[in-house]
Amino acid sequence: MAHWLNEEHGMMREAVRRFAEKEIAPVSEQLWEQQAFPYEIWKRSAQLGFTGLPYPEAYDGGGGSWLSFVIVLEELARVDCAVANSLMANSSVASLLSNYGSEAQKQAFLRPILNGQRIGSIGLTEPNAGSDAANIATRAVQDGDHWIITGAKTFISNSGTEISGPVVIAAVTGTREDGRKEISNFIVPAGTPGFSTGRKLTKIGWRASSTCELHFDRCKIPAANLLGTRGHGLRQTLAQISTGRILIGALALGILQGSLDRSRAYMKERTAFGKPLTDFQALQFKLADMATHAHAARLMLYDAAAAKDAGQRFDQQASMAKLFATERAMEAAHQAIQIHGGYGIISEYPVARAFGDAKVLEIVEGTSEIQRMIISRELLAQ
Q1: pLDDT grade, residue 2 (50/70/90)?
Q2: Which keywords, in A-to-Z order, does the entry hold (predicted)?
Q3: 327 noted as active-site residue
C-alpha cells in the first residue's frame, strides 16, 4: 500500500467496488442502450455518501478527502464510466457553490446536490466556446433586482433529468477596461421561466450520463443568484479546472483498470489454435502494458489528490495526470477490444462500451493538446 493510503482508503475502495459490481454492473448495458440516467443508482450513491464525499458536513457533505473521492470515481468508472461521470460533474457545481456561494446559496442549492435530492450542472460550453471559454456569447443584463439571461449552452452533463438543477452558468455581464468581456457566474434553478432544455445529445460514450443543450430566452433570475463577485465568473470556473482534471483522470484510471481486469479474465477463459490465450506472448505484453500504465496513472493521480488535500499547488501535476491517464485509458480500451476479438465490438461486452467512454475523456476538462500547452508553459516559466 502506498504511503499516502491508509486502512480507511482500503475500506472505501472495497465498499465502492462491491456497490459497483452488485448494483451497477447488472444494469450497465441497459443504461448504455437506452441512454437512461440511473436514478436509483444516483439515489443509492447519495445514501452511501459518495455524492458529497469531499464537501463540508454542514451542508450534507461527507467531510472526506479528495483522495478518497478519486478512489470512489476510479472504482465506479471501472464498471461504468457514465455513472461515475454523473458524480464528477455534480462535484464541479458543488465546488463552485462551496467556494464562492453565500450561506443562503449553500443552503438552497449546495445541500440538495450533496445529499442526492438534485444533481447539478455547469453551463460553460457553447457552440463556439469550448476550450476558448472566454469566447462565450450568453449575456446577462441587470434589470433592477433581477438579471435577464439570453443565450445557449451545449454539451452540458447532468442536464435533462427529472432531478437536474441548479445549473451554474457563465454569462457576459459587460466589458472590462482592457476591452475583454466581463464574465460572471449565475445560479439558475430548474423550472425558471425562460430556461429550457434542448435536444438530448447522442454520444459515442457516457451514454448513461444525460447531456443536453440549454436555452435561455430572457430568463429572469433574482440578483441574489449571482455567484460570488461580478466579473469573477471565469476566474472562479478556471480555479476548479485542475481539480476537475484530477477527477477526469480518476475516470480514466477506472477504464484502465477495468480493461486490464476484463482482458485478463477473458484470456484465462478462451483458447485459440488449441492453446489458452494466456500462452500467447503478444497478448501477455498487452496485459503488461495495461498494468504498468494503470500503476503509473494511479501514482500520478493519488499524488495530485494528496497535494490538493495538503493545500499544496497541484496544477501541473493535475494536467500531467489527466493527460497520461486519459491517453493510456484510450490505448487500454483499444487493446482490450483486440484481445476480445469479435466479441470486443459487441455492445453487450463492457470493453466495447468502455472504448467510447475513453475517447470522451481525452476531450473534456481540456483536450490532450491543451494539457500539453499547460505543462510546457509551466516548464518554460521555471
Answers
A1: low
A2: FAD, Flavoprotein, Oxidoreductase
A3: no
